[in-house]
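To close the section, here is one more complete example, presented without commentary so you can practise reading it yourself. The ligand is NAP.
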Amino acid sequence: MLLSSATRSLSPQSLPFLSFSHSISLPLPLPLLPNPCRPTRFPSFQISCIDAAQPFDYESHLKNHYIQSTSLKIAILGFGNFGQFLSKTFLRHHHTLLAYSRTNYTDLANQLGVSFYSDPNDLFEQHPDVVLLSTSILSTETLLQKLPFQRLRRNTLFVDVLSVKEFPRNLFLKYLPPDFDILCTHPMFGPESAKASWAGLPFVYDKVRIGDEENRVTRCDKFLGIFEKEGCRMVEMSCMEHDKYAAGSQFVTHTMGRVLEKFGLESSPINTKGYETLLNLVENTKGDSFDLYYGLFMYNQNALEQLERLDMAFESIKKDLFGRLHEVYRKQLFEDNGGVDKKMNLTQKLLGNGSLIEPPLDNQWKYEGQIINSRM
Ligand code: NAP
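Output:
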């Protein structure tokens, strides 16, 4: 139609063929040509060629295809400190991010490019591929109890990033429908320690229950792929093993960080490297909530034992120090019999707080009521 009206006013000599872009050439419908005896008027006209071949950008087409095939729709439950931290990296990997939290984070989520939902019903109706739990350890069970699982697709993948592992594993097995896949993970780093990069940092995971179907295996691999691509050190181990190791390392680290923070560690003009390490430790741990620390203690059955071991180690070191002090004291006692005042001054100075060591009446040295050296 477009062609026929346009060509009526053109001379036949000038239009044996109308050539379209590139290789397309069309013969003109001759019966419609104008009478050559009449003066020909050439109205201005334009060919709007809707079927011309457009330049085809294979590169961006392939890129989009790749992104679509590797991207996941991930719903984060608990959009606090750690949930936000993770979402920034997930977005860089072109995943679609949705979030739910008890607090309204709509503005912040919008800035990041995350769709925020104040109601888990609405969120679950978006049928995410992965639901990632990043709530405080303490609130996990309460939250799981009220989630509308029936709104999700039948075999959704549930992932958690809690800093303890046996606890969420058991909760998932208890509350999730049997068709759901379960992946328990612990990225062993946080917004402070992984500010610059995730490269080389440990990522622990346990594929607790992943269905055999190819799409379920692939979905799990795609999720793990985010951490692999970021260069994390991928460590596959059982939740039970994780908790055993983490109590001895992570819980002790957090405890020492908190003790030193309470102690009031301050930078000085003559910081040594060792002291800088301690300052960094305080810096790394003080940003974490007390809920997180309490969760490490409360929901890892190995934590109490580690706390007691720490306590005993501290006492033992004090005893070693005071044992040495008594030897100095004894030497002075026998070498300088008359110098009672001098001895008292020395003891007070070394103890700092002015308290005195009980005299060895029963041949046993004591400090604060405890026997610390019976070799006198
Ligand atoms: P957190 O204090 O352990 O958890 C804060 C999150 O829990 C927030 O999203 C908060 O929601 C939610 N929450 C707290 N109480 C709740 C309740 N009663 N009901 C519903 N939601 C509640 O701090 P976090 O650092 O963000 O850690 C989140 C999870 O990641 C924890 O399980 C932690 O063990 C794990 N993790 C943290 C790190 C880290 O470096 N921070 C590293 C690895 C793993 P609102 O903000 O909406 O109140």
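Once you have examined the tokens, check your reading against these statements. The chain is about 45% helix and 15% strand. Residues 1-31, 346-359 have pLDDT under 50 and may be disordered.
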